[in-house]
Amino acid sequence: MRQSKLFTKTRKEAPADEVSKNAQLLIQAGFIYKNMAGVYTFLPLGLRVIEKIKDIIRDEMNAIGGQEMYMPSLQDSEIWRQTDRWSDEKVDVWFKTELKAGGEVGLAWTHEEVITDLMRQYVSSYKDLPLFAYHIQTKFRNEMRAKSGIMRTREFWMKDLYSFSATEEQHHKFYEECAQAYKRIFDRIGIGDKTYRTFASGGAFTKFSHEFQTLAEAGEDVVYVNEAKGIAVNEEVLAEADLGELGVTRDELEKRKSIEVGNIFSLGTKFSEALGLTFMDENGAPQPVIMGSYGIGPARAMGTVVDLLADEKGIVWPESIAPFLVHLVVLNNDDEEIRDWADGIYDSLTESGVEVLYDDRDARAGEKFADSDLIGIPYRVIISRKTKAEGKFEVVTRATGDTKLVTEAELSTMFVK
Ligand code: ATP
Ligand code: MG
């Protein structure tokens, strides 16, 4: 991508109406645009990042047997009445509207009802189970507060997977596999070392469900953590948790702020009973299906990465989710010879499959470097008169600032996977 063609521009200053670091940096660098409080556009750079995060999630969900589908946002109020989750007293985040043809509909804030209802068509015997289905889809929530940038919005993508099992053993096997997959996802997007599987409230069988909480000052949640032992407990269950069983004492736990990047829940038979999702067991007796739900917010994860890894100069993307791997920055491009040389490097890197943002703009070196730091692409390759005589380029690693000089031959292989 040629930066001269990119319709977004960086801004000199962070937007004054944003309080969160993730939104300030992402808006300033041109990854997102704020349409209204809690509603953002993902611009070309931002879309590249979020799609990479979704692909990592998809990859790990497929690896544990998840089957991707796509369920709608518009919701028939009827099925939600059957689970007693239609009323605003029970659920305070609904966006509701009416059909012109008559009838109330809501915008989905989660999908347990929809998927349980539709599975009645496809599940009839224990032989159909277990099965795991997911989608990465837009949720709408009328959140009271939207101050954490892209980490708490009123319209957001969620990956939500639902498991359907015949026995508790089947359920627990998958629950653990999914927890491991979540760990791999957070490792791959670069926040694994700060992300804990915490004990949370609300599980249907066991007393607890689990959340994946990333330690961060910007977090809205509070966890009690022992970093050395890798144990964390949510604030609201601290009193109930049997710490002895977990292998820590209260004194060994430190209070920290954190961001809930994902969660996994045992739902038991709550939804299958309410909506009549049953299967015939081996003795031919009807049984309610045992369910679980497993959520991740890709944009919340993206905001968390920005928050944790950014430095005073701007965003720092891990390679796995960076919008581009290489930021090719040409200086002295009023010099035709240098410009041609840079164009050639851009073409050859692109042809070898390397994702390159090419700063071919007519701008001062200082401005280009400041923008490059702000945007946060992992490697900056600088083409300038200074090193041309030796036929070399400067390669700067964004995260560490390490700089080295490489030849054209070295450059042609160093980024090729
Ligand atoms: P929270 O307690 O932070 O409101 P939640 O318990 O409502 O989260 P779920 O309904 O289980 O979360 O959603 C699953 C995942 O979706 C969360 O772990 C989070 O990563 C993401 N998520 C939830 N709400 C939002 C939101 N308003 N904006 C962006 N991502 C969200
Ligand atoms: Mg919520």
**What is the distance, rounded to the nearest whole angstrom, between the alpha carbons of the first and last residues?**
19 Å
Widest sheet: strand ordering = 9-10-13-11-12
Question: How is the main sheet built?
Answer: 5 strands, mixed, barrel
Counted by DSSP, the helix tally is 12
> What is the subunit arrangement here?
single chain
CATH superfamily of the largest domain: Bira Bifunctional Protein, Domain 2
| Share of helix, binned | 25-40%
Give the second-level CATH assignment, the architecture of the largest domain.
2-Layer Sandwich
What CATH first level of the largest domain would be assigned?
Alpha Beta
Helix/strand/pairing category: alpha+beta
CATH topology of the largest domain: BirA Bifunctional Protein, domain 2
Organism: Candidatus Kaiserbacteria bacterium RIFOXYD1_FULL_42_15
InterPro entries: aa-tRNA-synt_IIb (IPR002314), aa-tRNA-synth_II (IPR006195), aa-tRNA-synth_II/BPL/LPL (IPR045864), Anticodon-bd (IPR004154), Anticodon-bd_dom_sf (IPR036621), Pro-tRNA-ligase_IIa (IPR002316), Pro-tRNA_synthetase (IPR050062), ProRS_anticodon_short (IPR044140)
EC number: 6.1.1.15
Domain Aminoacyl-transfer RNA synthetases class-II family profile: 38-318
Written account of the structure:
It is a single chain. With 417 residues, the chain is α+β, with helices and mostly antiparallel strands. The protein has 2 domains: 3-309, Bira Bifunctional Protein, Domain 2 (BirA Bifunctional Protein, domain 2); 326-414, Anticodon-binding domain (Rossmann fold), CATH 3.40.50. It is 29% helix and 29% strand. It has helices at 21-28, 44-63, 77-82, 112-119, 168-188, 243-246, 270-275, 298-309, 336-351, 365-375, 385-388, 408-414, and strands at residues 32-36, 39-42, 67-68, 74-76, 95-98, 104-107, 131-140, 155-165, 195-201, 208-215, 221-226, 231-234, 254-268, 278-280, 286-288, 290-296, 326-330, 356-359, 379-383, 392-397, 403-407. It has a 5-stranded mixed beta barrel with strand order 9-10-13-11-12. The radius of gyration is 25 Å and the shape is elongated. The two termini are 19 Å apart. The mean pLDDT is 95. The structure holds adenosine-5'-triphosphate (ATP) and magnesium ion.
